[in-house]
Amino acid sequence: MATTTLPTPADLTITPRDRKFERDALPQRLWHGGSVEATAIYNALSSTFPVGEAFFVDSVRAFRDGAPPQLAADIKGFTTQEAIHSREHDAFNRRATDAGYDLTLLDAQVAKRLAVTTSRPKIVSLAATMALEHFTAILAHQLLKQPKHLAGADPDAAALWRWHAAEEIEHKGVAYDTWLHATRDWTRRKRWTVKAKVMLFITRNFVVDRTAGALELMRQDGVTGLRAWASLLWYLWIAPGMFRKIAGAWFKFFLPGFHPWNEDDRDLLRAYEASAEARSAPAPAKRVRNAA
Q1: How does pLDDT run across 154-190, given as a tens digit for each residue?
Q2: Quick check: bond before 16 cis, omega within 30?
Q3: What residues pair up with 13 in beta bridges, in sequence order?
Q4: How many CA atoms within 13 Å lie on the side-chain side of 70?
Q5: Could you tell me if residue 286 is inside a domain?
Q6: Does some domain include residue 1?
């Protein structure tokens, strides 16, 4: 049988920061430094979050009954954070819509993907959540580590993304720990085989769908064809190259003994909490992981 050691730090604090960001119109349609491709990819990512994170919550919560006390507490903190993320990105998406973007095709593609996954056993949804949470965590790491990813962006929009990134890092082990608990009676080989296949499938869909979504939004700004492809691929893979820079962290998912907290990047959380941006926000209610 496989073991279920949970290397998530015992003193980790999962803190739902109930932030509310701007609801009024975006100051400019191309809110990310006037860049068509940067605005498009972030809008495309945001379009997935309201229903996507609700899916994460349902997938993890389905395995909360019978979980060890520490994990059950972590799941509660995770679901609270994700619910707030859904609310704030729904508001951000409305601002993008008000700026003239039509997200209908992007929303339909997300619904299509989720319909396939939710039609299968609940463990499939949990595996998909585990894989996607690794994606969000490594993207969040890059976002906080390299300020250039949000350089020139509208300050309130950038604050939304940094806040979201901090909480994605903070709860990055919850879905994986839930997966370890749910599959505790599986052999190591079965567990690795399933998670590897799911991650490859998720990766293909993530890259294809986010690229297609960004290209659709760029089309709405009048940028199409080779120009659109070249500028978007350059932005994603070369400079600043977010997708290229997460490749190594993505690969670690397949290594024996992988766990999201094998890399303890709470230094990024501490730096965020110490920033003027975070300190000016309303004080959140603390939710501490039970270390017993």
Answers
A1: 999 999 999 999 999 999 999 999 999 999 999 999 9
A2: no
A3: 288
A4: 18
A5: no
A6: no
